[in-house]
Input
Amino acid sequence: MNKNIAKIEDPILSVRDLTVAYDKNEAVKQVSVDFKKNSVTAIMGPSGCGKSTLLRAFNRMHELYENIHITGQIILNEEDIMKMPPIKVRRNLGMVFQRPNPFPTMSIYDNVIAGYKLNGIRLKKSEKDEIVERSLKDVALWDEVKDTLFKKGTFLSGGQQQRLCIARALAFSPEVILLDEPTSALDPIATSKIEEMLINLKKNYTIIMVTHNMSQAARISDYSLFMYLGELVEYDKTKTMFTNPKEKRTEEYLTGKFS
Output
C-alpha cells in the first residue's frame, strides 16, 4: 500500500494493486486505497491523471470495452467484486456521470425505476410508488416534482435532471454512490443544492466522487485522494491534506503551482 494512505478500519470498499490499462497504456497504476463507510471521498488531480478511469473500475464499466484490461482486487464488504455478477456490482455501486442524462423518452417516474425495468424485475405498483417517492425524497426533489411525475425528465432544469439521475442510482439502495464530476455542467445554485444533498446522503450511503473543483472537495468531502499520471500520490482526511499535505506534488496542485 502507498505509504501516504491513511489506514481506515473496517472499510466498506478496499482496492488493492489496481491497474487499468488501455491496450498497453496504464491509465491507473497499482492503486491501493480504503474507503470509509458513510463518508464522502473526493478524487482529485489534473486532467488525464486517471481519476475517472479509477472510479469507473469500481463498478466494472471497463468490461464494456474489449481493449481495457484490469488487474488487482476491489473488495466490497469483504467480497471481491471481480467475482460478482456485473448486474449485482452495478446495483451495489451506483454510477452518476458528468452531464445529466435522464432517459429522454421516459417520465420522471419511469426514469427513477428504469433500472428495474431494464433488468426485467417486476414490481407491484405500490412497490414502484414507494421506491420513486423514497429516491426522490433522498435527493430533495420530491416536493419539486410530485405533481409532475409523469412528465418527461428532460422537462426539468439541469440541476433537477442531475438530482433525478442520482435518484435513479439510489433506487436500488446501493452501498456506494460513484459520481464523476456531478456538478461540472451546473450553475452555482444547482451545484450548492447537490452539495447539500450529498452531505445528507452520506448518512445512508458511501460517496466517492471525482471533482476538478478543489473548493468543492474542501467543502463537502471527509477524505481526499490526489492522483497524478495514474498513480495515487496522497490520500488523507481532507482537512489534513488541505492544511498539511505530505507530498510536494499535492501541495503544488492545491496551491495552483502545478504545471
The CA atoms of residues 224 and 241 lie 7 Å apart. The chain is about 35% helix and 25% strand. The mean pLDDT is 92.
